[in-house]
Amino acid sequence: MSWIHTLQLVAERCQDAVTVTVAAGKGSTPREPGAKMIVTIDALHGTIGGGELEHQAIALARGMLRGPGQRAAKRFALGANLGQYCGGAASLLLERVARGAPWVSVAAGWHDRGAPLVVVTPVEGEARLLVGAGETWGGLGDAGADARATTIARTMLAGGERTAAVVAAGDGRPALFEPLRPSEFDVVVFGAGHVGRALVRVLGLVPCRVVWVDSRAGEFPAEVPDNVRVVRTDAPAAEIAPARAGSYFLVLTHSHALDLELVEAILQRGDFAYCGMIGSQTKRRTFEHGLAKRGVPPERRARLTCPIGIPGIRGKEPGAIAVAVAAELLEVRERALPGIENERTVPGIENERAARA
Known about the structure:
Blueprint (H helix, E strand, L loop, with lengths): L2 H10 L4 E10 L9 E4 L4 E3 L4 H16 L4 E7 L11 E9 L4 H11 L4 E6 L5 E5 L3 E4 L3 H16 L6 E4 L5 E7 L5 E5 L3 H10 L5 E6 L13 E5 L15 E4 L4 H14 L4 E4 L3 H13 L4 H4 L2 E2 L12 H19 L12 H8 L1
Parallel strand pairs: 11-12, 11-14, 12-13, 14-15, 15-16
Antiparallel strand pairs: 1-2, 1-5, 2-3, 4-5, 6-7, 6-10, 7-8, 9-10
């Protein structure tokens, strides 16, 4: 679940929240700029890396919820005084978000329709600007600042930027620019047996969207993670075509005949990031023969991953398999992403870097 949807969920529970965001990092830090934790009086969503840094941030956030504070910026040196020996420094931006805050529903609406946007939050004050490729909402209270911030935000969107950055807007005051993009890590899991259930629990902790498919309604648990959509259908193969290009498919069903049907359809589609099927090398060889008879060409058959899971984990327990498979998905995902640095170059950030050095 994205952080914007978490804020919506908290509001539906009639709670205010404080967002704790890593606005900038220097040197070695537990999390990257843009990492976010949402704190309520009695719950936490997300993490900024744990340890004493997070402990102090939670205390500050709950102090804001109990008092009049609305927004605060604080820099932490990650050294002996904090009990964390990363050697770097992290700048945090804390903001109280009231239930029903209009910018949350606007940003969530854009996000739901697949529109990338940048959320611009001044380090001081209570203004908000949302910038999409062809639209804006809100403002920073100054036309020049709005124009400058819009230019910066659209440069980030055009460049595919995903990392947050603190940049001086048109009025010279620093603001946090946070790209918010639709998920590009979509996982389709076929099968709600022991391994499927264990895997979905693990994927519930990963920033991805999961479609979980099975024909047996009784196999699904009563509650699933927030990032999971359950599909109970007598035609599981029909869920392959609607999946986004670049999706990750996992075939874990109770039927070898169904496995073959699903794998054939996924391989014939071709535009997937990963197609994995639970099984042994013997099962793979049997399926290779069956897929060849069905006309699946060798180059497509070669893209089937079976057995699944990163090498070196030999446990057959559902939990062990789930961890190994989730790690493999993340490994494939990482190879597909460009290199991620602690700070990226966007217009105006050079002076901010110099000021923090």
